[in-house]
Write a structure and sequence with these properties.
This is Spore coat associated protein CotJA. By secondary structure, the protein is mainly beta. It is built from 1 helix and 6 strands; from the N terminus they run ββββββα. The two termini are 22 Å apart.
């Protein structure tokens, strides 16, 4: 599915990357590296990933957003297509 961006106060909000300033971009997938002590007997975990919902980056809901049908809204968990975020497990082995 392809969703168009929403323009609010001169900023363009798209589905995957939110262009807030010209230098900084925000994505829906974030990561961090957990602290690992040199005295910890277990091996380091590595990077951990988590997703943030798209509604965190919009101050208010613009009018006339495209909507799912009621059946699709129950399936996707939201009425508005812009706020739907597909979860892709970053830890799953990918088939090439």
């Amino acid at each position: 599915m392809h969703y168009q961006g929403i323009k609010i106060r001169g900023y363009i909000f798209t589905k995957e990357v939110f262009f807030v300033t010209r230098e900084k971009t925000f994505t829906l997938v974030k990561s961090y590296k957990p602290f690992h002590s040199k005295f910890d007997p277990c091996p380091p975990i590595g990077r951990k990933y988590y997703r943030t919902p798209p509604n965190l980056y919009i101050n208010f809901q613009p009018p006339n957003l495209e909507q799912f049908t009621p059946e699709e809204a129950l399936k996707y968990g939201t009425l508005w297509k812009f706020f739907y975020d597909f979860y892709d497990n970053p830890y799953r082995e990918r088939e090439t």
